[in-house]
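Lab meeting, action items carried over

1. Structure of the two-component assembly. Owner: GW. Status: complete.
Input record:
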Amino acid sequence: MNMTRRHFIVLTAAAAAAWDSMLAGTPEAAAGYRASGHWYGMLINVEECIGCGSCVRGCQNENNVPDGYFRTWVERYQVADWTVENPTVDSPEGGKNGFPQAKDTHGKNFFVPKLCNHCADSPCTQVCPVGATFHSPDGVVLVDPKYCLGCRYCVQACPYGCRFLNPETNTAEKCSLCYHRLTKGLTTACCEVCPTGARQLVDFKNPKDPIHEFLKTHSVQVLKPYMATKAKVYYYGLDGSVR
Amino acid sequence: MKDLKDAAHLLRLAALFAVLFVIFLVVRAALVPKSFGRYGHYRGDALAEIAAKPIAYAGHQACETCHSDIVDVKSKGKHKGVGCESCHGPLAKHADDPSTVQPARLETTSLCPRCHTANAAKPKNFPQVVPENHSGGAACGSCHKPHTPVIETAEVKP
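Predicted assembly:
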């Protein structure tokens, strides 16, 4: 036997590397849809939102979201005067059935639709201990329900409160940006049913997408930019009171 | 060989480590799904599984392939930007099998106020009414045609 300890250690490392690459396999191309050719986000025009709740109902119909839980929801902000730091926010049933008239109609009132921001640098995927939530190659943050343990780390990690634990499956759930629709060439359910066009699905890698012209000529914001999550849901006309 | 004889206890230990390592690799191969790590630190097959879910909303493009008459009417009215399924509801099943799955007829009394009920938080230029005062309980559809909602002949109440 002339294998030295040095050879053994080197061979072990090499074998481990070879085994890992064998397990990983080679990427396979999906039929008719090239994920790497897209980079999805959303543009929300706050000034166009009428708070009708169509998006919330549409999302529930499309994704079988259980009652009382929301992958997207609409908030109403009521800012009385200079109290920008303390707005009154309500969202009865996620805005699913619209909103009653505000008590104080003289202040600044407006609706803000919310959903997963599909952050390019998302805290929720970083904390998942098992790799059940991830970034798809086309920029969508997804949950693998077969792999999710239901530990709720991601629910706590999301700065935007976009995740919940589905009480039926006990797995984490969130907006998938209707990934099953995107890959079929359709827009999301919420964008499909939004009557005013306040929500627009955008594909940043598509040079013909009107988002490029819009971003050049308009002031847009993301929610909680100080969290440095590289959120991809852009808001136009967003007030400073929105959290 | 004398050196090796002295190191025999180390070789036994190394052999034990080697066996344990092989067991680790076998167990790992059995537990980790084949597609894990294909695109990143996740199960690659999950992408295709999520993408394979059925759709509920067919999309306005699907509606327009058959209902081109409605598209013509709607394109002239204020509702031209409103998607079909925004009012008519999820109709992918109807698009798949138009003859057997028929969409329900809509009730304008409850449908139109979803968007057009007055609310201070709505954009000021969006047409809003207090339904009880505006129509006195009459169905919206008795005056307005939903695909072209502006009444051209009669007087329009503010």
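2. GW to write a short summary for the group page. Key points so far: Residues 2-51 of chain B form one domain. Chain B touches chain A through 51 residues (CB under 8 Å).
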